[in-house]
Design brief:
Ribosomal Protein L30, Chain: A, alpha+beta, three-stranded antiparallel beta sheet, binds zinc ion, 6 strands
């Protein structure tokens, strides 16, 4: 949905709140729209990648974050984790491989925390920091 949507009932601009969380190592997201005039509201939620127009709101509010991978000795394991956990194509994996060791991904804090959680589970050393 367009974040700049207006109220269906009174056509005032709706206030939008978006968020992401991690459930069982999976990403979930939600967006809620509310009208300060007439109490009209609606919610939208989903699993996995958040739609870009919501994601950019979070990045604007909380900044862009990155995850860095420190090792490359477990490359096969790292690539396997990437493929199976994140549902990536072989092309994506090959592209990401060039970033290891180094900054693997950039995104929202919750997205990076989720990656960190998965990598830590497989003892892959990594770090989440702000990206400037
Ligand atoms: Zn309204």
């Amino acid at each position: 949905m367009d974040p700049n949507v207006s109220c269906e009932k009174c056509s005032k601009p709706l206030e939008i709140k978006v968020g992401q969380s991690i459930i069982d190592e999976k990403l979930v997201w939600h967006a809620s729209f509310s009208c300060q005039e007439c109490q009209y509201w609606l919610e939208e939620d989903g699993m996995g990648e958040m739609p870009d127009n919501y994601r950019s709101i979070i990045i604007k509010e909380k900044g862009l974050w990155q995850i860095e991978i420190f090792e490359s000795k477990n490359m096969a394991q790292i690539l396997k984790v990437l493929r199976t956990t994140f549902d990536l194509s072989i092309g994506d994996v090959v592209r990401l491989k060039k970033n290891i060791p180094g900054v693997l991904y950039k995104g929202t804090l919750v997205e990076m925390k989720r990656l960190e959680k998965v990598f830590r589970k497989y003892n892959i050393s990594c770090r989440v920091t702000t990206s400037n």
